[in-house]
Amino acid sequence: MSVAEEIKRLHELHQAGALSDEEFAAAKARLLNKEESPGASSDFSRLRRSRTDRWLGGVCGGLARISGVESWIWRLLFVLFVLTFGFGLAIYILLWIFVPEDELIGN
């Protein structure tokens, strides 16, 4: 769906009363900002290891934050990759080494 079609659909939802004025404006702004800079701020560039949702290195917690998938599902996927293909541990360790940790806020 093109950006114009998405904006048209948002407008229809707004006219039907499904979206408030604020929701419509925010959704439209997000669509327009995404169109102006596609790929300039990819989700992967925002990947940070979590300081709060972690068992080992916080990799799965960080992946959960940017993907919207629960961290326990990421943990399960890494375990399955270790058991079936053998490279899950290597990927996890590489992410642990090369992905920066969340910055502390308020310190």
TrEMBL record:
Protein name per Swiss-Prot or TrEMBL:
Phage shock protein PspC (Stress-responsive transcriptional regulator)
Would the keyword Transmembrane helix be found if you checked this record's keyword annotation? yes
Nucleotide-binding recorded as keyword: no
Topology in the membrane? Answer: Single-pass membrane protein
Compartments annotated for it: namely:
Cell membrane
Q: Which InterPro entries match?
A: Phageshock_PspC_N, PspC, SHOCT
Q: Which domain of life is it from?
A: Bacteria
Query: What Gene Ontology cellular-component terms does the record carry?
Result: plasma membrane
Q: According to its UniProt record, what is one Pfam family this protein matches? A: PspC
Keywords from the named record:
Cell membrane, Membrane, Transmembrane, Transmembrane helix
